[in-house]
Amino acid sequence: MNEFLEILKYVLPSVVVFLTSWLMLASFYQRDKERHRMELATKNQKLITPIRLQAYERIVLFLERINPESLIMRVNRAGMTSRQLQNEMISQVRSEFEHNLSQQVYMSSDAWELVKSARSNLIKIINSCAQKVDPESPSINLSKSILEFMIEMEKSPITVAIEYIKKE
Question: Is 155 helix (H, G, I), strand (E, B) or coil?
């Protein structure tokens, strides 16, 4: 028993020193690992933020381009029928949307859903107004119908989407 106590007298302090050192090193490595993770997150944020802002800018530009007032001015040509204008407007909306489809990666899900909803609602408005006019009538008739419908709306889906994106 005396030998055991003698050995314990030398081993116990070594074990205490070892455990203390091990705990200190583990704590140091944990803090260093956390600091490194925070640095990476900060660098990532600095990289992503400008790209994200650019995506929001592009989506607002998309929404402004498909706004009926600007869309009609851009696609309406002399001699077009209402049906031709309807088809051209829908084609432009879809084309613009497909061109900006990748921007959803940088946007919140809610913002992207509003953008998709604005696009879908605009197509519905165009189709609904087109049903009210003769397809072979001059395109000005469809233009008037769409613009009058938009004026009657409290807030257009495009305006709602743009306001939400600006808040984000």
Answer: coil
| 81-114 pLDDT, tens digit each | 999 999 999 999 999 999 999 999 999 999 999 9
The structure tokens listed for 30 are 């944990």
Cβ(129)–Cβ(34) below 8 Å: no
Place of tokens 């028993």: 1
- Pick from 119, 137, 12: nearest CA to 59: 119
Q: What is the largest CA-CA distance in the chain?
A: 113
| Contact by Cβ (8 Å): 103, 50 | no
The pLDDT, as a whole number, for residue 168 is: 87
For residues 122 and 151, give the distance between their C-alpha atoms in angstroms, rounded to a whole number.
Answer: 13
∠ Cα 67 69 75 (to 5°): 90
Which residues, other chains included, contact 143 with Cβ-Cβ below 8 Å and sequence gap of 6+? Answer: 72, 76, 85
> How does DSSP classify residue 81?
B
The whole-angstrom separation of Cα 119 and Cα 142 is: 18
Average pLDDT over residues 117-124: 97
Angle at 91 between CA 120 and CA 147, to 5 degrees: 65
